[in-house]
Every structure is written in C-alpha cells, then in structure tokens.
Design brief:
Blueprint lengths: L10 H4 L15 H4 L6 E8 L9 E5 L6 E5 L5 E7 L2 E8 L5 E9 L5 E7 L16 H5 L4 H15 L3 H14 L4 H13 L3 H14 L4 H13 L3 H14 L4 H13 L4 H11 L6 H11 L3 H14 L7 H11 L2
Parallel strand pairs: 1-7
Antiparallel strand pairs: 1-4, 2-3, 2-5, 5-6
C-alpha cells in the first residue's frame, strides 16, 4: 500500500553510479532496528466506520528521526511495529495512494519493551483528511441516494480487505446509481491504481474533479498517477492544486519536486519541495543531494546523503552506490 510514484526512470540522473530499482517511498526497516534494547514493539488496533478506501498503512513520524516506521494494517485492524524508540510521535494512517486518512499524536514510553495503542478513526464524509476534514461546498450540496451510498460502503469494505475486483464492482454500481457521486469515481480510481491500471485510474480521478473541481482527494490521487505515467507537467499542476487545499501532504511535495526536475522547472522551488518531503520520504534526500551538487554545494549534498544512509537499512541495495557518491563528494 505504497504511494504510486517511483523514480526508476530517474535513476541514471541521480548519480554517476547506476542505482538498482528504488521505490521513492522507502521507510526505515523496523527489523533493522529491532536489535536495539532501548526500542519497543508497538501493537495497535484501528477501528473505524469502514469508510476508508483501499489498503491502509500506519506510520510513526518524529521530528528527531529521518523517515518513518510503517506497517500495513491487517484486515481486522491490527498492526505491529518493531524497533520503536521511546518518545513523542505523530501517528498517521495513509490510504492506497499515500493520502492522509487520520493523524494523532502518541507517546511511546518504552519502559516494558512493548506498548499497545488503540486508534479510533472518527466518522468522516470524505476519504482524505489531514488535521481536519476537507469537504467541498458542492459535495455538501449533493444528496447521495441511499442505495448508491450502500454500494460505496460495500466497495470501501472490500477494498480494505484487499479484494479490489469486488471493490471495483461496488464502486461502479454506486456511480451507475448516482452519476454525480464524485467520491465513488475517486474510489474507482484508487481501485484501478491498486490494480496497476494507472491510465484508467487517472481517467476516473478526472471524472471526480469534473464533478467537483475542488475535490482535493481526487486531485492528489491524480497528481500521483500522472507522475507515475511520466506526465510530469500535468502531475505538477495537479499537485499544486491539491497542496493548495492541503499543504501537509508531503508525498505531493515529492511529486511536485520530481515534476519540476523533469520539466526543467525552477530548481529553487524543486529543492524546497523535496527538502520538505524528506521528513516522510528518505529517498528525497538523493534528489536534494543531486541538485545541491549540480549547483556547487557539495558539502550540503554530502550531508543529505548521510541523512539518507542513516535512515536506510543495511539491506538497501542502493547503499553501495550512495556511499560511493558520498566519497566522490568528499574528495
């Protein structure tokens, strides 16, 4: 359940040494940290009203740590994270396109080597939120027929369980019953994205936006799949649109940075967005380092490579190439 963006096509751009395949949504491996006796196992249970679309991931983020610890949430709502250092964290639930569903602050004490968390996701009228729900005026005006809402809810439940074909069937029934049901078109798009059918996903997200021009969830989703499809100019435009409604979506900062790089856009703006994205996406450090190195800021570039290596597990196939690049910068 990772963000539908990769930079496989950019790997030769990143450094003189060829990289292996790199998913731009890498996070710290929990297993790589579990050997530290100061760290805890965190077990949790998520409950909601079954209105979450797609598979869900739980992430723990801390200002003092690069990257995020993450785990997929099981169909029953349980999750487990290993190697969690004591301290205050932002707990975030993200959906299939990396969009924020729920956020709250938690404290891990680490005293007994384990900790249990109970996360209650409140009822909400849309599928994407940051610190508060974002609902357009047009969505509030639109009355969804009861049968269409029932099919939509069934689609959500099937998608949470990982049954994407059944989810698609229910979402499609919902839009047949209500052709103006923007959230259902967004659900169809997310299901197609989960199935790897990105162009079909983009078409459905656009339908949601055509119905509700300020549908921030669909705009965010569309920017991600357009970036995956290498339609960088359109991806950047849509990322700006979504970020205007919700500036906290750091994965979209990453999308915007990639789009600016590939369209020969403003490097200062690209650098700013990619730096912000490093709090959630450690791989963004590599893009930041490349821009800094190209502008003669070799020491700053080296520090970002060091930050990447600190957040990267020992098993990361890119480590040797990044280490070689770091040595080149420090010559």
């Amino acid at each position: 359940m990772r963000i539908y963006v990769s930079v496989i096509g950019l790997l030769s751009w990143l450094a003189p040494t060829a990289f292996g395949q790199w998913d731009g949504n890498q996070s710290i491996s929990a297993n790589s940290l579990s050997g530290n006796h100061d760290r805890s196992v965190v077990r949790g249970q998520v409950t909601s009203d079954n209105r979450l679309i797609g598979s869900v991931t739980v992430e723990l983020l801390s200002p003092g740590h690069a990257g995020a610890l993450s785990a997929s949430i099981e169909p029953g709502g349980g999750f487990e994270l290993h190697g969690v250092a004591p301290g205050a964290y932002q707990l975030r639930l993200t959906g299939a396109a990396g969009l924020v569903i729920h956020e709250e602050h938690v404290f891990i004490n680490g005293n007994e080597g384990y900790q249990n968390l109970s996360i209650q996701v409140p009822a909400q009228p849309v599928t994407v939120r940051s610190s508060e729900a974002v609902v357009s005026f047009k969505q509030l005006q639109h009355k969804v027929p009861a049968e269409a809402q029932k099919e939509f809810d069934k689609g959500n439940t099937a998608s949470i369980k990982g049954d994407q074909p059944r989810a698609l069937e229910h979402f499609q029934k919902a839009v047949r019953l209500d052709p103006e049901f923007a959230d259902a078109f967004n659900g169809i798009g997310m299901t197609y994205a989960a199935l790897g059918q990105l162009q079909q996903a983009a078409d459905q997200f656009q339908k949601a936006i055509d119905l509700v021009p300020d549908h921030s969830g669909a705009a965010a989703n569309l920017s991600i799949v357009l970036c995956k499809l290498k339609h960088y100019r359109e991806a950047g435009e849509m990322a700006r649109r979504a970020l205007k409604a919700n500036p906290s979506l750091l994965k979209l900062r990453y999308v915007l940075g990639i789009s600016l790089i590939n369209e020969d856009g403003d490097k200062v703006e690209a650098l700013d967005n990619l730096k912000r994205a490093t709090a959630e996406i450690p791989g963004a450090h590599l893009l930041v380092a490349r821009i800094l190195a190209e502008t003669g800021r070799r020491e700053d570039a080296a520090r970002h490579l060091e930050d990447y290596l600190r957040s990267s597990p020992a098993s990361d196939l890119d480590r040797p190439a990044v280490e070689t690049w770091l040595k080149q910068l420090r010559r």
